[in-house]
């Protein structure tokens, strides 16, 4: 559907993408696919998955210290990394600051805005991935992506 020069996705496409991110095999293939498109996109897939695990943890009513450890792990890995750049995912710095300010507030929504930002960003690559994937047997996808990555690396070097 085309509305005011913006592509509007159907809810079935959004649901399919969400299911793909929750499927370890498809998510890994998609992660490799987007890694060829931009440096932080690969981390975006991991971030989205870790936030889902965090939300599951919140809903499982486990103890606060476990929830706090998961918040800290996500922040240390993606939002305020010891490895430069500190922000390892493609979100606005205001969103990152907000997460850091609210890091002591337990509950499933601390990463909500950032997760939605990442989801929207990654979703732009979903149709291209589906097209790429449709032309290959599932066991050939990772091999094809490795070849593309090799070509990209050789271009950078030479």
UniProtKB/TrEMBL annotation:
Coiled coil: none
Gene Ontology molecular functions: G-protein alpha-subunit binding
Pfam families in the record: RGS
CC annotations in GO: cytoplasm; nucleus
Sequence ranges assigned to domain RGS in this UniProt record: 16-122
PROSITE patterns: RGS
UniProt superkingdom: Eukaryota
InterPro entries recorded: RGS, Rgs22, RGS22_RGS_fourth, RGS_sf, RGS_subdomain_2
A biological process term (GO) from this entry: regulation of signal transduction
Protein name, UniProt field: Regulator of G-protein signaling 22
Annotated organism of origin: Pygoscelis adeliae (Adelie penguin)
Native organism taxonomy: Eukaryota, Metazoa, Chordata, Craniata, Vertebrata
């Amino acid at each position: 559907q085309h509305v005011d020069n913006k592509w509007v996705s159907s809810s079935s496409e959004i649901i399919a993408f969400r299911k793909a991110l929750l499927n370890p095999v498809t998510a890994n293939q998609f992660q490799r696919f987007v890694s060829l498109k931009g440096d932080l996109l690969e981390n975006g897939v991991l971030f989205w998955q870790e936030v889902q695990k965090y939300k599951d943890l919140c809903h499982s009513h486990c103890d606060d210290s476990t929830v706090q450890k998961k918040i800290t792990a996500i922040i240390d890995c993606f939002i305020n990394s010891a490895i430069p750049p500190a922000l390892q995912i493609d979100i606005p710095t205001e969103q990152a600051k907000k997460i850091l300010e609210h890091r002591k507030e337990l509950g499933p929504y601390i990463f909500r805005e950032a997760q939605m930002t990442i989801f929207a960003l990654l979703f732009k690559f979903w149709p291209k991935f589906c097209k790429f994937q449709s032309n290959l047997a599932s066991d050939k996808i990772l091999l094809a992506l490795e070849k593309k990555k090799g070509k990209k690396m050789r271009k950078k070097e030479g």
